[in-house]
Amino acid sequence: MLAAIAIAAFTLSLAPKGSLGSRWLLIALAGASVFWVWRQPAGERRDNVLPALAVLLSALGLVTIARLSVDLAHRQVLWLGLSLALVIALGETLDRFRRYATYKYIWVLASIVLFVLLALFGQEVNGAKLWIRIGPVQYEPVELIKLFIVFFMAAYLAETGDVIAAAKPWSLRANARYLGPLFLGWGASTAILVLQHDLGMAALLLGTFAAMLYVATRRIDLIVAGGAIFAAVALWAVHHYPYVATRVAVWRNPFADPLGHGYQTLQGLFALAGGGLFGAGYGLGHPSYIPDAPTDYILAAWAEDFGALGACVLLAAFALVVRRSFLAAERQPDLYAKLLLCGLAATLAFQVCIIVGGVLGAFPLTGITLPFFSYGGSSLVANFLLVSLVWAVGAERRHVARAIEQTERGTT
Question: What is 313-352 written as a DSSP string?
Answer without folding.
Answer: HHHHHHHHHHHHHHHHHHH-SSHHHHHHHHHHHHHHHHHH
